[in-house]
Design brief:
alpha+beta; P1 Nuclease; Immunoglobulin-like; 3 domains; four-stranded antiparallel β-sheet; 14 helices
Length: 451
């Protein structure tokens, strides 16, 4: 918790490198993914009986910087706790999705071009960029960074306050801490980190973020000289808000954390154009130049239809608009418009939610099997080296360690202890790696039957 609190600074939530809009699209995506994931069931098994709707509390005195940052969010968007620092588990996930851009400079770490394997690079916009920086300095805002950490690397970066290590630390303590109040705080903090990691993944569903189209994030949005961002992402917020974001249409699975980020980036980059990576203009009898090999153009374009006043539409196999094209004065040109963006978003957003659901299930993938008798045994599959701790919970909800063992990996049986004389629940938590060497916290719980 201390690492999380120290790193969360009070800063503006928006910036030119900002993401799908944090309090609308990102919160909606995180909520839809959480509802479709195994999180509700997992929370219930660990003693949070309300699951996604279990009230969890971070006392404001324990996390003043976090509470200040949360006050920047609109209370109407469902991620601001009450005066006691209390809100439902689902709302803490949503809060993490909104806070991933705090401080605003962290938003630059939410880009990844799978073709160059690089993150944000500041576009050369000449005089306009210098004016923008002058305006931002006058307003006390951060300048555009020259470059930033690529999204797949940011998730495991040491200076990421909402990264994987923070999630694992808080999640483990949400099981092993002694009192219900402590466990509530740690679980809320774990869910904040999970929501923030989902935010970073979700950003890679925006085509400009994965096609090196950094200039698309400096479009004027109309609110002033410093109101810059992605028009495409702004359209998503206007069209869907938070509650209208669609549910996932499937669940994506991967064996490694990084593969979620690189995988979605590759899918997005290969399927969609972005504002500044449309095919170049050309003579109508010449092949248009592509900024990237995919999406590829069909062998034959409908130049007759393109010669009409309104031109025609290039569509993907599912029928969604990829671009408009038109022939005028023997020049073939490609454009996009808001209606085209809406067709793209109708496909992109459910797919992004599917990847976010898969990521959340991946973070929760570790499950331990407990067998109760005169001896308690703890087993697990596909685990590497680590340490397992066994705890008993009493009638007051207090948990006490009753056994601990180091495990070398490659074994299903992780540990065994004698059954305690009293208690209502046995729990076990493993912290180490899985069989593929990926960091993991695995958990298990079982009520103690009493005659």
């Amino acid at each position: 918790m201390k690492k999380l609190v120290a790193a969360v600074l009070v800063a503006a939530l928006a910036g030119p490198a900002g993401a799908w809009e944090a309090q609308t699209t990102h919160q909606g995506l995180a909520e839809q993914a959480a509802l479709a994931s195994k999180l509700h069931k997992r929370l219930g098994s660990l003693g949070f009986s309300g699951g996604l709707f279990e009230p969890l509390t971070i006392p404001p005195a324990d996390a003043p910087a976090l509470m200040q940052a949360l006050k920047l969010l609109s209370p109407t968007h469902g991620a601001v706790p009450d005066g006691r620092g209390r809100q439902a588990a689902l709302a803490w996930i949503s809060a993490g999705a909104a806070l991933a851009d705090v401080p605003a400079a962290h938003g630059a770490n939410h880009f990844y071009d799978p073709h160059t394997r690089s993150g944000w690079r500041r576009p050369d916009l000449g005089f306009g960029a210098r004016v923008t920086d002058a305006v931002r300095r006058a307003m006390g805002r951060a300048e555009l960074p020259e470059k930033a950490v690529a999204a797949p690397d940011w998730i495991t970066a040491k200076d990421n306050p909402f990264g994987l290590s923070e999630f694992l630390h808080q999640y483990e303590r949400a099981v092993s801490a002694a009192t219900p109040g402590e466990r509530s705080r740690y679980m809320a903090a774990a869910l904040i980190s999970a929501g923030a990691m989902m935010h970073v993944l979700g950003d890679l569903g925006a085509p400009s973020r994965v096609r090196g189209d950094y200039a698309a994030h400096l479009d004027p949005l109309g609110g002033g000289a410093d109101d810059l961002g992605s028009r495409f992402e702004h359209i998503a917020a206007l069209a869907y808000g938070r509650l209208g974001v669609p549910a996932p249409d499937h669940v994506v699975t991967r064996d490694k954390l990084r593969d979620f980020y690189t995988g979605l980036a590759e899918v997005t980059a290969d399927h969609w154009f972005s504002e500044n990576t449309l095919p170049g203009s050309s003579r109508s009898d010449a092949r248009p130049a592509l900024a990237l090999p995919k999406p590829a153009l069909p062998t034959r374009l409908n130049l007759m239809a393109a010669s009409r006043d309104d031109g025609t539409t290039l569509r993907d196999p599912a029928g969604a608009c990829l671009a408009r094209y038109k022939v005028e004065h023997n020049v073939l040109s490609f454009t996009t418009d808001d209606d085209c963006a809406l067709e793209e978003l109708a496909q992109i957003l459910p797919n992004v939610a599917a990847w976010e659901t898969g990521l959340l299930d991946y973070l929760l993938r570790g499950e331990l099997i407990l067998s109760l008798g005169p001896t308690i045994t703890v087993a697990g599959k596909n685990l590497g080296a680590g340490e397992v701790q066994i705890l008993v919970e009493d009638e007051r909800g207090v948990r006490t360690p009753i056994g601990k063992a180091a495990t070398p990996g490659g074994r299903e049986l992780l540990g065994a202890v004698a059954m305690p004389a009293s208690g209502v629940r046995i729990l076990a938590v493993f912290h180490g790696t899985d069989a593929k060497g990926e960091p993991l916290v695995a958990v298990g719980a079982m009520p103690i039957p009493r005659s």
